[in-house]
Ribulose-phosphate 3-epimerase
Amino acid sequence: SHPIRIAPSILAADFANFGAECRAAEDAGADWIHVDVMDGHFVPNLTFGPAMCKALRPHIRGTMDVHLMIAPVDPYIQAFADAGADVLTAHVEAGPHIHRTLQAIRAAGVKAGVALNPGTPASAAQPLLDMVDLICVMTVNPGFGGQSFIASQLQTIRDVKAMIGDRPIHIEVDGGVDTKTAPDVARAGADVLVAGSAVFRGGSVEAPDAYGANIVAI
Ligand code: DX5
Ligand code: ZN
């Protein structure tokens, strides 16, 4: 199993100071930097694309974890790979060909992730277990930071954990993770905790020492 990692989402950072915000997050102990890409179509919000990721790359020492909330995905994979993404996560709901998408991500030399919306069962990832390095369980409906954690998704995390067995697949949890929810999320089996507002809006994220999580607050 993996040590717990905290992945601050720059969706909650100062949009005029992303470089400094990424450095501050890493200096505070962040392991990964989570970049939320939204297209105003798959989700009802717009953020940034590959050019922004490329500009960010020199400001991130560790893992650039890019969460693609876009449809279609395939036309943009190479651009995000060229921008220096270490992980590219696509949604199982984003189109009819998630398997092809994951193949293309790996063919581009990038770790492949699949994300599951709150309305999607863990079993949707079952046929993809040999195709993925990460499964992201959404604990909010994607589109916006600062939403409340959907506690019923703890069962989906447990289901994913049981399903992956001893495969070396990260379980990432995204949405509403803060000091209150992080311990439950870690206990359910997640090892990558995305946190936006809790990190960049004055709060903090921690999981009990037993789970080895860093504490990050900026
Ligand atoms: C939601 C994004 C999340 C979000 C998390 O669509 O995928 O990464 O930024 O933000 P918080 O931690 O504020 O829920
Ligand atoms: Zn995200």
